[in-house]
Amino acid sequence: MTYQIVPIAEEHIRGFHAAVDVVARERKYLVHLEAPPFEETRRFVLRNIEHGYPQFAVVSADTVVGWCDVLPNRLGSSIHTAELWGSVYCRSFAAKASAAS
Length: 101
What we know:
27% strand, four-stranded antiparallel sheet, alpha+beta, 3 helices
């Protein structure tokens, strides 16, 4: 799989939303069981861009297949720290891994 890791931009929001939904529906890695509503996701990404919070899209063949974001903690003495979130999915890779095990 050939991919690029790029700073997230408004053009990636729909694909980011879809990628979050795929990973959430796996019910393994995220607290959510599906992606939040699209408008909520859109506001989240645009806020990160506006504040300069690091957020990246993993893109393969013009499809967002993953992401990584680093969001600041807002809790008192932890304000100088951040949370790292991310995931990558690829159905063909998952199928190969499953067949190999």
